[in-house]
Write a structure and sequence with these properties.
globular; 16 strands; seven-stranded mixed beta sheet; binds pyridoxal-5'-phosphate; alpha/beta; four-stranded antiparallel beta sheet
Length: 438
């Protein structure tokens, strides 16, 4: 009531309430990336300058969305695109995605095999829930992005395969093969988060063929449900160095009944906040995933869908945007990687992986067991907080992506930094390393 004092809710004992929630909710954990982000926010709020390499996002200052996308959204809003879109997505956008995919890959997906969602996350969630039954086995490699959470949400038994740095932390067929016989879902991501490395086309082809073979075996036996593959290619449009990326169906057409491909505008067009993603999959999966996600309300906003349609239809606008965005990504990744490679050449205890794409550089700081100020550096988390405290550089340990080995690997994201900030990294790290003893 106007004039009277507002009601301040007394929510009671919050830790007790938290302990009484569903097992599903209690089993979720705060992503290690968000934990770092929280600390960065706290430091910034105190006025401490931070070189923020922690978030897999873009600063609109350095990575604006395509002008065509912006004008398309504004036009759509002004012309009244403020109501519900059809749950599977605007027909015009599904058609535009299908055309775009054909131009990129030579694969023509029919409209009924394209589902539009509110960014990439609902695609992953919907794909998991559509094919994975409680107790089914899901196989994925670590480090990888949030498969642990989606496996938990779907009640799956997760098999995590630790990928090797010498393979760019991408899994190989020989590492995955022993687990396929009992699996319902295999998840791959290329170019990868956190690594920025891509699967070699031949290695990917071998895995796809193994998925097809496993399904042929099941069909012969009769009765057993298929093995599916969820292929996360959200970073595939960004082109740096050799373009190793291949669409699954371009490599192995026979994999079509089993492959669910996720992609979207978030990373391709620096449009993380606009929320447009798509799933390419067999029509039976699209129909059920669409129905399932309609209950979550996970469709992309109507105006964003209309704007994306305009953009995807305009080949010249896309080509122009690719040139400028890819250039900006390439320059940043290159400068970061070259700087670390130079430190490695000097014999400093660092290593780095040359990125194939995405927006990440993998950095290894071989500091575990060494000392600073008489204190032993125990693990990756200790290295992370030391680097943040001493140099103001925010990085994310691979433990946030499920890696258990304490081998000193970190992800650096270039989406929110300038070239000047990248140049700042090397003197700061060098001065930290000078303070560290064996
Ligand atoms: C590998 C990977 N897949 C999927 C996503 C989800 O993308 P979106 O922002 O479109 O939900 C991300 C986001 O960071 C990602 O890194």
């Amino acid at each position: 009531m106007p004039g009277s004092s507002p009601v301040t809710p007394d929510f009671g004992d919050q830790p007790r309430l938290a302990g009484s929630l569903s097992e599903l909710a209690k089993g979720m954990h705060l992503s290690g990336i968000l934990r770092t982000a929280q600390q960065v926010r706290e430091l910034k709020a105190k006025g401490t300058p931070v070189l923020d390499f922690s978030l897999g996002d873009f600063s609109p200052k350095y990575f604006p969305i395509p002008a065509k996308l912006l004008s398309g959204i504004v036009k759509a809003l002004e012309s009244g695109a403020t109501n519900y879109p059809p749950p599977p997505g605007l027909l015009s956008l599904r058609q535009a995605v299908s055309d775009y995919v054909e131009r990129c890959s030579g694969v023509r997906y029919p409209i009924e095999s394209v589902l539009i969602t509110c960014g990439g996350r609902p695609v992953i969630y919907g794909a998991y829930l559509t094919v994975v039954a409680r107790g089914d086995t899901v196989v994925y490699s670590v480090p990888s992005w949030q498969n642990d959470s989606y496996a938990w949400l779907s009640g799956a038994k997760a098999i995590e395969v630790e990928a090797k740095s010498e393979n760019g932390f991408q899994p190989t067929l020989s590492e995955i093969a022993p687990h396929l016989k009992n699996a319902r879902l295999l998840c791959l991501c290329s170019p990868g988060n956190p690594t920025g490395t891509a699967m070699e086309p031949q290695a990917f082809k071998e895995i796809l063929e193994a998925v097809v073979d496993e399904n042929r075996r099941r069909e012969k036996l009769g009765g057993e449900r298929p093995l599916f593959l969820l292929y996360d290619q959200i970073y595939s449009s960004i082109r740096v160095n050799d373009n190793k990326h291949r669409y699954a169906l371009a490599l192995v057409p026979a994999s079509a009944p089993y492959v669910m491909t996720m992609d979207g505008a978030s990373k391709a067009f620096s449009a993380t906040g606009l929320r447009v993603g798509w799933l390419l999959a067999p029509p039976a999966i699209i129909a059920k995933a669409g129905e399932l996600l309609s209950h979550v309300g996970a469709w992309a906003p109507h105006a964003e869908q209309a704007g994306m349609t305009e953009l995807l239809k305009d080949e010249a606008a896309i080509a122009e945007y690719r040139t400028s965005m890819d250039n900006a990504v390439h320059k940043r990744l290159g400068a970061l990687y070259q700087g670390f490679a130079a430190m490695r050449e000097e014999g400093l205890p660092v290593d780095a992986l040359c990125p194939d794409g995405a927006i990440y550089v993998s950095l290894q700081l071989k500091l575990r067991g060494k000392k600073i100020g008489g204190e032993v550096i125990a693990d990756n988390e200790a290295i992370r907080s030391l680097v943040l405290k001493e140099t103001g550089i925010a990085i994310v340990p691979f433990q946030a992506f499920g890696l258990t080995q304490e081998t000193g690997w970190f992800r650096l994201s270039i989406g929110a930094v300038s070239m000047e900030e990248i140049a700042e990294v090397f003197p700061r790290l060098r001065s930290l390393l000078a303070k560290i003893s064996s």
